[in-house]
């Protein structure tokens, strides 16, 4: 029973000024607070009660249970019990189609790019709703322990969560009745928990290696004078301990002569195998071999797994994380020798092989894993909550955006407005204009990514700036400004400066993003750099040619009385030739044809200009020196 303080005089519930920190994890979640007497962060709950499994059970009457009680239903009612919901945030069914059978519950197929849904007892839920159940449980737990109504929180997310996933997390907090003051990157929170940077005299460059149940990210932080500055971040929003478990499950199926598809088809059998795999993974961090038994489809099987075999199985996954580490180091323009400390975060870093490989990569005799990896992020969230509550003013967190943000310009080009690794919060703008006379609308499409062409990047959203006064092409001045808040969530402003026409929008979360986009964008940008530059150059040349064609047609149309028949015919032939060549994607040929058209039109363009100036000066008296 929650002990809530009530004002007897007016019957109002006492709302606390406290701001809690929440780690909404893939496998487990925690809530933490800073003790105002000793200024130390602590997780709420008794020793065995601090960790809340991120599991939701919904019974036949649609009653919701969260945590250990929900986890107890994983085998008996697997289709009504949801786990790893964090992996579903900001994703569509299309993104998860290849993984759908590996979940013990039913993902609803959908041909659209809408957010994935989960069906339980004939009722449809989405990941935001399900995440809100966990957050509400944590909120109620804090209120029970503190005896006060809690309304404000800081929630952590992987550094590599994209705009949609961050917005989905914030929305889940709102549904749970929380005012989410800040979405904080997990690696930054972990650094605070380790006490790194709390001493203002301390100057360090650290790497935070965060491998949880479902996500991985690596963050390079520079800490100086109490300022936490993120130099770079990289990662994979679909790599974690769950993948270790699945690898073991696949291995055992092969060893036992079973088909993984058949096991996955029986939700209860798959849960049994998944939990056994998780048990083996944990055991192998303490012992060189795991042995056990499992009952599948009423048949009993003996299981065994050597630590050496386990390490070979997970090596590709660990290698994937180390490639992200290499990319983060390159982005930060640092060598591993310049890293003072490597901080380990997330339950999956308990795996001995992970520790060994990370030590080897960063050339360190040991890594910093002295804190409980399950609690470290929640503790850091509590410290950030304490800062936002105004109790500490000596620390400043400067996070970064992991991917560039920009708009589509003519030719399908990506024009970056806020580059990746820009500090948060951030604001930047650029001026644009119209390309057609009398244009009254301008469609603004917003993208995120590192490629030169928008077709290779992720579309976040679009809107139309309307009611632009009719003006000649090139005359309107349209200022487009991106405002990226401290949570990494984007707002876009567009203003036509001459008329004051304005529109401001929050980019709505697009839940149907490709599962691999965030993980592969930076790598793809490097792999395709030369081809991208060629494509951009060609697109820019084509755009220039289209403008030349438009202006020349307009020139001929508006000044036919000043041109000879030969000039008109020669110009039209040159225009048609340029239009034809533009279809062949030969940049040099386009430039040559464009130069020829300019050469043909230059003499009479000058003649038209002289005529216009002569008319303008008719009857005017010019002062002489």
Helix content: 25-40%
* Bulk shape: elongated
Query: What's the total count of β strands?
Result: 27
What is the terminal separation in angstroms?
A: 95 Å
The number of domains is 4
Low-confidence stretches: 1-15, 509-522
Number of helices: 15
Mean pLDDT reading: 82
Helix- and strand-based class?
Answer: alpha+beta
CATH homologous superfamily placement of the largest domain: ATPase, nucleotide binding domain
Supply the CATH class of the largest domain. Answer: Alpha Beta
Largest sheet: 6 strands, mixed
Q: Which value, in Å, is the CA radius of gyration?
A: 30 Å
**Beta-strand content estimate:** 15-25%
Known CATH architecture of the largest domain: 2-Layer Sandwich
CATH topology of the largest domain: Nucleotidyltransferase, domain 5
Structure description:
- Mean pLDDT is 82; it is low at 1-15 and 509-522.
- Helix content is 36%, strand content 25%.
- The chain is α+β, with helices and mostly antiparallel strands and 625 residues long.
- The strands form seven sheets. Strands 1, 2, 3, 4, 11 and 12 form a six-stranded mixed β-sheet that branches. A five-stranded mixed β-sheet has the order 18-13-14-15-19, sandwiched between helices.
- Helix 3 crosses helix 4, helix 5 crosses helix 11 and helix 6 (241-256) runs antiparallel to helix 9 (307-332).
- The chain has four domains: 19-240 and 313-398, ATPase, nucleotide binding domain (Nucleotidyltransferase, domain 5), CATH 3.30.420.40; 241-312, Alpha-Beta Complex (Actin, Chain A, domain 4); 405-520, Substrate Binding Domain Of DNAk, Chain A, domain 1, CATH 2.60.34; 530-614, Substrate Binding Domain Of Dnak, Chain:A, Domain 2, CATH 1.20.1270.10.
């Amino acid at each position: 029973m929650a002990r809530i303080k009530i004002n007897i005089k007016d019957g109002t519930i006492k709302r606390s000024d406290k701001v809690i920190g929440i780690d909404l994890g893939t496998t487990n979640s925690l809530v933490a607070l800073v003790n105002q007497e000793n200024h130390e962060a602590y997780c709420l709950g008794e020793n065995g009660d601090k960790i809340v499994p991120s599991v939701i059970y919904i019974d036949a009457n649609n009653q919701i249970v969260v945590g250990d009680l929900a986890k107890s239903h994983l085998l008996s009612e697997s289709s009504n019990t949801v786990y790893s919901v964090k992996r579903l945030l900001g994703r569509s069914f299309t993104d998860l189609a290849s993984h759908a059978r590996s979940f013990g519950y039913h993902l609803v197929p959908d041909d659209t790019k809408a957010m994935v849904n989960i069906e339980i007892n004939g009722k449809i839920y989405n990941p935001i709703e399900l995440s809100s159940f966990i957050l509400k449980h944590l909120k109620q737990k804090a209120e029970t322990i503190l005896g006060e109504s809690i309304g404000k929180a800081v929630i952590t997310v992987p550094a590599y969560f994209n705009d949609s996933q961050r917005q989905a997390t914030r929305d889940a907090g709102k549904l749970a009745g929380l005012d989410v003051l800040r979405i904080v990157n997990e690696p930054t929170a972990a650094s605070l928990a380790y006490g790194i940077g709390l001493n203002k005299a301390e100057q360090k460059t650290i790497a935070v290696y965060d491998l949880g149940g479902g996500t991985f990210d690596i963050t390079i932080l520079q800490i100086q004078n109490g300022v936490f500055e993120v130099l770079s971040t990289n990662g994979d929003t679909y790599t974690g301990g769950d993948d270790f478990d699945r690898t073991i499950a696949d291995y055992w199926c092969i060893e036992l002569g079973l088909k993984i598809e058949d096991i996955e088809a029986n939700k209860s059998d798959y849960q049994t195998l998944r939990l056994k795999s998780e048990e083996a993974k944990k055991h192998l961090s303490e012992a060189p071999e795991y042995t056990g038994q499992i009952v599948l489809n009423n048949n009993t099987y003996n299981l065994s797994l050597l630590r050496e075999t386990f390490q070979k199985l997970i090596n590709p996954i660990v290698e994937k994380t180390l490639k992200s580490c290499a990319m983060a180091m390159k982005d930060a323009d640092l060598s591993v020798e310049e890293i003072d400390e490597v901080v380990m975060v997330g339950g999956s870093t308990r795996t001995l092989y992970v520790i060994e490989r990370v030590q080897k990569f960063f050339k360190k005799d040991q890594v910093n894993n002295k804190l409980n990896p399950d609690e470290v992020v929640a503790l850091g969230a509590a410290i950030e909550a304490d800062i936002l509550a105004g109790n500490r003013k000596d620390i400043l967190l400067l996070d970064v955006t992991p991917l560039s943000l920009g708009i589509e310009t003519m030719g399908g080009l990506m024009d970056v407005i806020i580059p990746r690794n820009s500090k948060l919060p951030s604001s930047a703008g650029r001026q644009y204009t119209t390309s057609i006379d009398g244009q009254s609308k301008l469609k603004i499409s917003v993208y995120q990514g590192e490629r030169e062409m928008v077709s290779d990047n992720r579309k976040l959203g679009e809107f139309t700036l309307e009611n632009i006064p009719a003006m000649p092409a090139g005359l309107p001045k349209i200022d487009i400004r991106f405002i990226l808040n401290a949570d990494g969530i984007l707002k876009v402003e567009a203003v036509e400066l001459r008329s004051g026409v304005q529109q401001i929008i929050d980019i709505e979360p697009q839940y149907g993003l490709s599962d691999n986009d965030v993980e592969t964008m930076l790598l793809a940008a490097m792999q395709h750099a030369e081809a991208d530059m060629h494509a951009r150059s060609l697109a820019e040349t084509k755009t220039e040619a289209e403008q030349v064609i438009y202006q020349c047609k307009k020139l001929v149309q508006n000044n036919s009385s000043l041109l000879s028949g030969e000039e008109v015919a020669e110009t039209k032939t040159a225009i048609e030739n340029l239009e034809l060549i533009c279809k062949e994607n030969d940049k040099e040929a386009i430039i040559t044809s464009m130069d020829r058209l300019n050469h043909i039109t230059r003499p009479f363009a000058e003649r038209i200009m002289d005529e216009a100036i002569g008319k303008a000066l008719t009857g005017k008296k010019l002062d002489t020196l």
